[in-house]
């Protein structure tokens, strides 16, 4: 399923942000069309990085750039991003079809024939074609995750932000969903930013890695280079865990 624009290069340009007693300094770029894993210990600033890209946080200084365009103060709705979180953000009282359709039209107005077909196609793509009238509470965790994937597909945005989306799934299901993400990424060519605590998930999915500790970016490199960074104790600990 095509995205609405080519994936942008994203740059956090000397971004500083203070949240409570924690200070973050982020100066890094995310190559277009990659799956970039954001890793590091708890509290390192991984979710904060996603929130800055999405527009949920505004830096105290510095810029958030998409293909050189300054989007630092743009509202999240004005940014070319879709998001998938661990809890999937599904509405339990709305059926699967409607939850996916919200990606096209949050106001729930009547969909056009083409829009309805886009929802049907997205559900078929994630193997939920026969579940469109089910409610989320009746679905398994993996099925709910697939609904969230389908909603991201119909949005057709060139950037997908994922905050530990597979953390609550059992190991077998995590592998299945990781495979689905890889397949969808090959089809859409989108830029994916994936927060993960899982070294195997990082190795399996990512082509680029941003590693953080204490609110700072320690490594911003292709995955092959990251895996060789034995000079950084936090990286060694992450890879050994």
UniProtKB/TrEMBL annotation:
InterPro entries (UniProt xref):
AAA+_ATPase, ABC_SmlMolc_Importer, ABC_transporter-like_ATP-bd, ABC_transporter-like_CS, P-loop_NTPase
The residue ranges of the ABC transporter domain are 10-239
PROSITE patterns found in the cross-reference section: ABC_TRANSPORTER_1, ABC_TRANSPORTER_2
Record keywords, A-Z = ATP-binding, Cell inner membrane, Cell membrane, Hydrolase, Membrane, Nucleotide-binding, Translocase, Transport
In the Enzyme Commission scheme, what number(s) does this protein have? Answer: 3.6.3.-
One molecular function GO term is: ATP hydrolysis activity
Note the SUPFAM superfamilies from the entry.
P-loop containing nucleoside triphosphate hydrolases
Coiled coil where?
Answer: none
Q: Which Pfam families match?
A: ABC_tran (PF00005)
Top-level lineage group? Bacteria
Indicate the family of this protein. Answer: Belongs to the ABC transporter superfamily.
| Name under which the protein is recorded | Thiamine import ATP-binding protein thiQ
Which species does this protein come from? Answer: Pseudorhizobium banfieldiae
């Amino acid at each position: 399923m095509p995205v609405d624009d080519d994936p942008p290069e994203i740059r956090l340009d000397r971004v500083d942000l203070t949240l409570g007693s924690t200070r973050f300094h982020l100066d890094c770029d995310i190559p277009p069309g990659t799956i970039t894993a954001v890793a590091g210990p708890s509290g390192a600033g991984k979710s904060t990085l996603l929130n800055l890209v999405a527009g949920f946080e505004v830096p105290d200084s510095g810029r958030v750039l998409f293909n050189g365009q300054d989007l630092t103060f743009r509202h999240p709705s004005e940014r070319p991003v879709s998001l998938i979180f661990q809890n999937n953000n599904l509405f339990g009282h709305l059926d699967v079809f409607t939850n996916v359709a919200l990606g096209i039209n949050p106001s729930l107005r009547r969909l056009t024939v083409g829009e309805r077909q886009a929802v049907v196609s997205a559900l078929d793509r994630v193997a939920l074609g026969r579940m469109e009238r089910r409610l989320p509470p009746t679905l398994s965790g993996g099925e709910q995750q697939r609904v969230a994937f389908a909603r991201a597909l119909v949005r057709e945005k060139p950037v997908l932000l994922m905050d530990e989306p597979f953390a609550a799934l059992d190991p077998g299901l995590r592998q299945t969903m990781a495979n689905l993400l890889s397949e969808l990424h090959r089809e859409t060519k989108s830029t994916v930013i994936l927060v993960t605590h899982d070294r195997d998930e990082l190795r399996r999915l990512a082509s680029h890695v941003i590693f953080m500790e204490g609110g700072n970016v320690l490594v911003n490199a292709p995955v092959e280079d990251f895996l060789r960074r034995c000079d950084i104790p936090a990286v060694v600990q992450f890879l050994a865990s």
